[in-house]
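stage 2 :: seqdesign
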């Protein structure tokens, strides 16, 4: 790739930060012409395309290939957006695309398509897959001073401030809800041995001060929840070790927490407080892993926290069938759950049986988590999952560490 192309490219939908007068004029026109934008920039229609991982992937070669990579990304953006949309390069690490006449859902779908297409083209020139990240933003337009958003620096600052404020609010919600919370340790049954020698750590919902959302647009709820659980688990692992209890602990973490740099950094700091026993007795249950996640992405993501734990179990949908392609990343097992299903149905039975059939292996264990009742827990055992957990197996306990037999 030669260092040419992007800086000289022109498109009337592209804002040029170097031409401040033109930037200001076109930004004001954009806000005036698009009612959605004028009401709330842009009611979720601002999409940030992060290229931090791309820059890191190229390393020392980045200055030489930068312009061509950015041109590649720009060409994809131009093919996807409409005449009502505008975009700009905020810095080496992010594009900002503003959709003027799309709903929030439409803008998100378009941004994800842009990221997917860029990733595929970059992968074609030898990079790892799935490097571009997508982030939706809600940014209020200052009605009394629309010119506040007519400088590229102001837009970048406003978008980032909005992101930070939204994440801080969501984290505060979790922090407040868990001020007096405790962990519950759910026994995990080894089906073949009829033995409980592992527990899943979860927030005890009966001890929280308010309901915690299961997911969030920003990923901050998941991150804050993960931080709380790993922080409380450190003391529990140490206590079990002091009492010479030999059970293993399964510690949940969301894939987005490990994938997103700013979330990952604080999570890694929390991991440093885990006792040495964690390297031998604690496994990570990584939730929310896409079924089509590339092996390179899994390897990179797991490598950040690998020094602290004994291994990983990836949680996927019932349709997951790529276990063999993800070998070699220290993933000792794959897991799934019943989703929203509360009754044992033919479809759930088929999903369970197929999942086990596709993903069992000599070095890979299959886990079924969150069985809500005895019928579904029994169904998981009959489907020949290696391990089954949930209230249909045994209730959550206040402490963990004891190994015991189950009928």
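stage 2 :: out
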């Amino acid at each position: 790739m030669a260092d040419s192309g992007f800086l000289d490219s022109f498109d009337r939908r592209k804002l040029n930060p170097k031409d401040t007068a033109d930037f200001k004029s076109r930004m004001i026109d954009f806000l005036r012409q698009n009612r959605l934008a004028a009401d709330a920039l842009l009611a979720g229609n601002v999409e940030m395309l992060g290229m931090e991982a791309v820059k890191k992937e190229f390393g020392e070669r980045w200055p030489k290939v930068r312009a061509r990579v950015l041109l590649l990304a720009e060409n994809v953006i131009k093919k996807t957006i409409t005449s009502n949309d505008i975009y700009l390069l905020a810095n080496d690490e992010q594009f900002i695309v503003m959709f003027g006449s799309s709903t929030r859902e439409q803008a998100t779908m378009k941004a994800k398509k842009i990221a997917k297409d860029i990733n595929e083209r970059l992968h074609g020139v030898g990079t790892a897959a799935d490097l571009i990240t997508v982030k939706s933003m809600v940014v209020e337009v200052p009605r009394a001073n629309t010119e506040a958003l007519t400088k590229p620096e102001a837009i970048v600052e406003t978008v980032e401030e909005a992101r930070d404020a939204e994440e801080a609010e969501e984290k505060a919600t979790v922090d407040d809800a868990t001020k007096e919370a405790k962990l519950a340790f759910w026994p995990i049954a080894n089906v073949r041995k009829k033995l409980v020698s592992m527990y899943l750590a979860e927030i005890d919902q009966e001890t929280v001060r308010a309901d915690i959302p299961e997911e969030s647009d920003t990923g901050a709820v998941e991150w804050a929840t993960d931080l709380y659980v790993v922080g409380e688990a450190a003391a529990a692992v140490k206590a079990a070790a002091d009492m010479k209890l030999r059970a293993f602990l399964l510690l949940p973490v969301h894939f987005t927490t490990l994938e997103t740099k700013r979330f990952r950094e604080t999570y890694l700091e929390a991991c440093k407080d885990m006792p040495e026993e964690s390297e031998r007795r604690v496994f990570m249950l990584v939730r929310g892993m896409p079924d089509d996640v590339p092996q390179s992405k899994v390897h990179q993501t797991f490598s950040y926290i690998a020094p602290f734990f004994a291994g990983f179990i990836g949680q996927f949908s019932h349709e997951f069938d790529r276990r063999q392609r993800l070998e070699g990343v220290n993933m000792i097992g794959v897991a799934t759950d019943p989703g929203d299903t509360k009754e044992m149905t033919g479809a759930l039975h088929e999903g369970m049986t197929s999942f086990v059939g596709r993903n069992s292996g000599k070095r890979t264990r299959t886990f079924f988590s969150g069985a809500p009742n005895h019928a579904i827990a029994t169904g998981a055992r009959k489907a020949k999952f290696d391990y089954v957990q949930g209230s249909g197996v045994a209730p959550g306990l206040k402490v963990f560490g004891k190994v015991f037999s189950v009928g």
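stage 3 :: structure notes
- Confidence is low (pLDDT under 50) at residues 1-7.
- Residues 156 and 196 are 52 Å apart (CA to CA).
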